[in-house]
Automatic annotation (TrEMBL):
GO terms for biological process: nucleotide metabolic process. It comes from Acinetobacter gerneri DSM 14967 = CIP 107464 = MTCC 9824. This is HIT domain-containing protein. It holds the Pfam family HIT. The active site is at residue 102. A motif (Histidine triad motif) lies at residues 100-104. InterPro entries: HINT (IPR039384), Histidine_triad_HIT (IPR001310), HIT-like (IPR011146), HIT-like_sf (IPR036265). Residues 8-115 form the HIT domain. One of its GO terms (molecular function) is catalytic activity. CDD domains: HINT_subgroup. It comes from the Bacteria.
């Protein structure tokens, strides 16, 4: 399917919508999820316009996963996370709600995860968690 450049993450990438960012370079952006399933729920997205993991070229996929690892280490250190769930949904049938490929890093256990994209988090609390992650990068 053609990439929808009006999706929320494309608009965040263009600076049209705000996001609490923890890391950015020329290829990747990491920012806090606004409906976190656990404290510190972070999203890592490649900047290239790909809808699902299957649409992402191999070089971008390889680079993005390196940043996923970097952010996971910062979450572990900054938030003293004991375990991190890495989740990636490809396709609406898998439950993907935003059609720009992204990796969820959720400091939690698969047995404890809350409902997906269901409840808005507290912005001040999310901002404070982002500062701890950034300080640990
Ligand atoms: P998906 O269902 O596509 O795998 O995950 C999309 C994620 O994006 C969900 O966890 C949801 O909470 C989050 N999300 C949806 N809209 C926004 C937004 O405007 N800003 C941020 N930071 N996260 C969002």
């Amino acid at each position: 399917m053609a990439y929808d450049d009006q999706n929320i993450f494309a608009r965040i990438l263009r600076g049209e919508l705000p996001a609490i960012k923890v890391y950015e370079d020329d290829k990747v952006l990491a920012f806090m999820d606004i409906m976190p399933q656990a404290e510190g729920h972070t999203l890592v997205i490649p900047k290239s316009p790909a809808e699902t993991l299957l649409d992402l070229d191999a070089e971008d996929a390889a680079y993005t996963i390196q940043i996923v690892q970097k952010i996971a280490r910062a979450i572990e250190k900054g938030l003293d996370a004991k375990g991190i769930v890495l989740m990636q949904l490809s396709g609406a049938s898998a439950g993907q709600t935003v059609p720009h490929v992204h990796f969820h890093l959720i400091p939690s256990s698969i047995h404890e995860l809350g409902r997906h994209a269901a409840t808005m988090g507290d912005t001040d609390k999310i901002q404070a968690l982002a500062e701890k992650i950034k300080a640990a990068l």
